[in-house]
């Protein structure tokens, strides 16, 4: 779950939280209008007309009550800001259960899930091997605060996927993994500055909550109240995909930059791929300048390939591999896990071997390790089928929705890498945060609500990636594309 603040995301709060209470909820068959091409058994579009079934209209009465109650106890009614749906308006549905591709809310509405708990649910919800492993581990006691065999077992599986992680340490979130990697990079290099990219999110640690102007000599300014300027000033934020800006930053801060941290494929400004030569250029510059290269693969890890973006783009050779890597989301199989790791000589600067302190009461928690082991074992055993299937499903979903928008004359830019992607409501090509910000967030918000009311749950912000899971099959694809056509039709009215 991303916790980005409004400044970082460029949120537009578009609607007050009106209760959407409609009339009776009954299952009806909705004819798909026009010439939508439904999908055959292999997920390919056919030429005939079809229909799909949705529970219409959706009611959110119980969710609205639950939100009201939550707001008396939790700021905004949530434990993580984006869940409040402020960027898209309307009360957020309260989820009570989920299975496979579907979420069920407190009013009994069902949704095809296209956000997957913000990434972890690669195999859909209540994935049986992970559930069974969690149950077994729970019955042996949920926590010991001592070393367990499961930690090295999960570490071996992680290392099979990410050979760059010669040593690693488990933590409880992606934020912790990134925060710890930054401290380690500073401790290892004895340099104060960190370079990040606008629109990349690395958790909510002070040093990383910075949305700086793109000027090279510009010091970072905090993107959140409560972050001291003295902390933010050591973070430089540059436009993504701009190598010359990186060169200038190193030229103006000689010997002072400890590390570059980036999402090798951005998910947190919506999906943005690295342009040709960008990652390689960063590797060359950091090596030349004695700075570390940190790939934040909290989102892309195990999603783009078993070896994440570095596997996907071939950054596994000694010359190209990153110095440090951060992971989260999928590695915990739905439980709170993060992990950071990398070159042994860097990682051995960590306490108890070295001077960089890092610790956690529940780090390497047995339930979380068990869920991670079950998930990664399944992934490694079946990767030959998993990634081609994800690619085929994702290609059909993202291209299908884009085609539906085109039929209704709605300008979309569709960015997709593997099973993550974003429909930006802009005709402009999106390759950095500035171009992502040209999107019409109000139109996105209307699209989001229309899809929700047709049983498809998209991430509730224009600046987030949608995720496809292996649980999404032909029925769900047909439903998504039918709902998209209806939603686009609504937007043109
Ligand atoms: C790339 C990236 N890094 C770090 C984080 C922070 O992870 P967490 O929310 O587990 O703290 C996120 C969260 O979405 C992320 O997408």
Folded structure, characterized:
The structure is a single chain. It contains 14 helices and 16 strands. The strands form four sheets. Strands 6-12-11-10-9-7-8 form a seven-stranded mixed sheet, sandwiched between helices. Strands 3-4-5-15 form a four-stranded mixed sheet. The chain has a domain at 128-377: Aspartate Aminotransferase, domain 2 (3-Layer(aba) Sandwich). The longest helix has 42 residues, at 366-407. By secondary structure, it is α/β, with parallel strands linked by helices. Residues 1-2, 118, 173-175, 178, 201-203, 263, 267-268, 296, 298-299, 328, 338 line the site of pyridoxal-5'-phosphate (PLP). Residues 1-2, 118, 173-175, 178, 201-203, 263, 267-268, 296, 298-299, 328, 338 line the site of pyridoxal-5'-phosphate.
**Extended strand count:** 16
Question: What is the CA-CA span between the terminal residues?
Answer: 34 Å
Give helix % range.
25-40%
Low-confidence stretches: 1-53, 212-219
């Amino acid at each position: 779950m991303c916790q980005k603040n409004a400044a970082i995301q460029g949120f537009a709060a578009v609607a007050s939280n009106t209760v959407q209470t409609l009339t009776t909820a009954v299952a009806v068959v909705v004819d798909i209008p026009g010439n939508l091409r439904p999908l055959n058994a292999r997920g390919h579009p056919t030429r005939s007309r079809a229909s799909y079934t949705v529970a219409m209209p959706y009611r959110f009465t119980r969710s609205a009550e639950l939100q009201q109650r939550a707001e008396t106890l939790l700021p905004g009614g949530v434990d993580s800001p984006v869940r409040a749906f402020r960027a898209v308006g309307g009360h957020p549905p309260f989820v009570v259960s989920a299975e496979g591709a579907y979420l069920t809310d407190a009013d009994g509405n069902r949704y095809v899930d296209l956000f997957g708990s913000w990434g972890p649910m690669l195999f859909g919800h209540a994935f049986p091997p992970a559930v069974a492993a969690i149950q077994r581990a729970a019955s042996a006691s949920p926590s010991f605060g001592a070393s367990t065999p499961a930690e090295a077992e999960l570490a071996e599986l992680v290392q099979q996927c990410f050979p760059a992680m010669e040593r690693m340490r488990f933590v409880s979130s992606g934020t912790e993994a990134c925060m710890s990697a930054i401290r380690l990079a500073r401790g290892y290099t004895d340099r104060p500055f960190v370079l990040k990219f606008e629109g990349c999110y690395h958790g909510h640690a002070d040093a990383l909550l910075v949305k700086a102007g793109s000027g090279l000599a510009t010091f970072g300014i905090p993107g959140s109240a409560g972050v001291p300027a003295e902390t933010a000033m050591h973070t430089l934020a540059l436009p993504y995909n701009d190598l010359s800006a990186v060169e200038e930053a190193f030229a103006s801060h000689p010997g002072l930059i400890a590390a570059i941290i980036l999402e090798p494929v951005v998910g947190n400004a919506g999906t943005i791929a690295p342009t040709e030569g960008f990652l390689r250029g960063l590797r060359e510059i950091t090596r030349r300048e004695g700075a570390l290269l940190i790939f934040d693969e909290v989102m892309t890890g195990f999603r783009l390939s078993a070896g994440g973006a570095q596997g996907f783009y071939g950054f596994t050779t000694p010359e190209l591999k990153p110095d440090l890597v951060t992971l989260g989301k999928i590695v915990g199989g739905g439980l709170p896990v993060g992990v950071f790791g990398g070159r042994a000589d860097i990682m051995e600067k960590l306490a108890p071997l070295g001077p960089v302190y890092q610790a956690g009461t529940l780090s390497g928690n047995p339930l979380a390790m068990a869920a991670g082991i079950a998930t990664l074992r399944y992934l490694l055993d079946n990767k030959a089928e998993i990634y081609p299937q994800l690619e085929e499903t994702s290609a059909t979903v993202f291209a299908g929705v884009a085609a539906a928008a085109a039929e209704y004359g709605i300008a979309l830019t569709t960015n997709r890498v593997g099973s993550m992607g974003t429909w930006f409501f802009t005709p402009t090509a999106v390759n950095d945060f500035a171009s992502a910000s040209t999107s019409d967030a109000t139109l996105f918000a209307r699209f989001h609500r229309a899809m929700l009311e047709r049983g498809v749950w998209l991430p509730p912000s224009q600046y987030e990636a949608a995720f496809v899971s292996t649980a999404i099959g032909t029925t769900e694809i047909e439903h998504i594309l039918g709902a998209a056509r209806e939603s686009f039709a609504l937007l043109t009215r």
